[in-house]
Amino acid sequence: MRATFLILALACSGCTQFPELDGTISPEVEKANFPTLIPFETFEAQAAPIVSDPTDTTKTLEARVASLRARAQSLQSRPIVDAATRRRIEDRLG
Question: Is the dihedral of CA 29, 32, 34, 35 positive or negative?
Fold first, then answer.
């Protein structure tokens, strides 16, 4: 049974029409030079280090976390709906 499906799949793939790709590349691109390849070591030497000082990064992140936690706390302590809007809602409902 598997062999039948395999033969059928191969037969169907032989009937597929492929798109015409001739003439799709412009003459400018066809005449363009290939880019110059550089050794990986050269590229790696030019790359900046991801983290310059882990201690500074840790302090910066901890300060950011503290700031975000303080902001979250202030947002949680505020009411979502102000008093005037709450009265209007209650008047409409009641």
Answer: negative
